[in-house]
Write a structure and sequence with these properties.
The structure is a homodimer. Chain A is mainly β and about 150 residues long. Chain A is about 10% helix and about 30% strand. Chain A has helices at about 65-70, 130-135, 145-150, and strands spanning about 5-10, 10-15, 30-35, 50-55, 70, 80-85, 95-105, 110-115, 125-130. The longest helix of chain A has 6 residues, at about 145-150.
């Protein structure tokens, strides 16, 4: 089963005022995720949740092992040299982004969210309701560099 | 951009004592995620985190719109009829599973975790460190059926 291949089809697309990737300031961005017409019935009941897990395919990312497998987050000298599976950088073997977004509203064609760190045109692979009992790790620990890195992201 | 297609390649595979899907009791299961040899350097630094977000491709799932687009969670009569994007069922348009798992240890070939709700042989698409500032929604609200459904899952 060495690196089995799988074809996934986008279930929707992001409409965002952000046209080019940025490293910070995503928190106030409002995006509309437009779901494919034949799947829109699948949104029913999502409006009863406050947050949605957005699974995006970061189509602009390019993973090159020699540059991205081990690197300093955002290339910053004050960050440690760590592996791609220990950081959230977008240039990953599979450029999947996972973001917990507050739901602004659910309408007939999709869902409006804030804080989605994905540019206009990003394909969406899945939407999942945020279940605190499942998705929150109350006692999670991180190395100290994480706090320094994430200052200003939202 | 209607339903664009994307080819993803597994970065690893699950080794678990669970050989067939079950609906509950995942919490104590210990699984080993074996990473592809050429990507193992990407694990460096993951051991400093307490939790990892495991992105799995639930290869046994089959989505059929007429059965799964709108349904009662687990087919239970006491659950509401809701869309697939408002529930965590595995039979989704893209059968991606996302689970927050406590890390037991990181070794030279992969990572051992508990609570991974994926059977033996499940392809893994990505591993991400759990960042509380990013992944925790402290004030998340859910409809009341969620608590009833998740009782006993872990």
């Amino acid at each position: 089963m060495a690196g089995s291949e799988h074809v996934l089809k986008a279930i929707g697309v992001v409409r965002s005022p952000v046209l080019d990737p940025v490293d910070e300031g995503w928190g106030t961005i409002e995006s509309h995720i437009v779901v494919e017409p034949e799947l829109r019935a699948g949104l029913r009941g999502l409006e009863e949740f406050s947050h949605v897990l957005v699974v995006a395919l970061l189509h602009g990312a390019r993973f090159e092992a020699e540059r991205h497998l081990v690197r300093r987050p955002r290339g910053l000298a004050e960050m440690p040299e760590i592996g791609i599976f220990a950081q959230r950088a977008k240039d990953r073997p599979n450029p999947i982004g996972i973001t917990v977004c507050p739901i602004v509203r659910v309408d007939d064609v999709g869902v409006t969210v804030t804080g989605l760190d994905a540019i206009d045109g990003t394909p969406i692979l899945d939407l999942k309701p945020y279940f605190p009992v499942f998705d929150t790790a109350p006692n999670a620990r991180t190395p100290e560099w994480v706090d320094r890195l994430m200052l200003g992201y939202f």
